[in-house]
Amino acid sequence: MAEVDEIVKRLQAQKGVEGVIIANSEGIAIRSTLEDQHTVQYVALIQPLLVKAKKMLLEMDPSDDFTYLRVRTEKNEIIITADKEYFMVAIQKPAP
Amino acid sequence: MAEVDEIVKRLQAQKGVEGVIIANSEGIAIRSTLEDQHTVQYVALIQPLLVKAKKMLLEMDPSDDFTYLRVRTEKNEIIITADKEYFMVAIQKPAP
Asked: Among B67, B77, B78, B81, which would you mutate to test the A interface (most chain A Cβ atoms within 10 Å of its Cβ)?
């Protein structure tokens, strides 16, 4: 698990990164650089979006594989990557 | 409406772009460079994802605004932008 901490630390140290969350496929955060309240809220909101994106992709092209999801807003960029067991969320300030 | 056609034409001419769809907020395609069957399928799949992303954002930060959603897969990149009345989907080969 030290490896996970190393990844989170390195990501969090990147310029503009505001928060990093790693959660399991049941939606339980296993690492987060955010306050608990935000962590729980973000995971609860992001997981259904991830599930829907994967489902959409499966119906569009079953032979294709999900890589990542990027939600760009006025203030932030939310990047969501996932494998079978975990998903990772990075929230960052958009590059100028 | 000629302006919309011009935008679609210019987007479709971009290297790697496989398809462009413009649909209204009721999920009716008003322009598409794809076959009807794909257009209807993609709009039906993408619209709920867009609605969910916007809802997620509203709950995360009501003062923030949605800009775009990018779904990256092994084979493609699906970019979804939207304003109040319309949303646009561009499907492209990811840059190498």
From this structure: B67
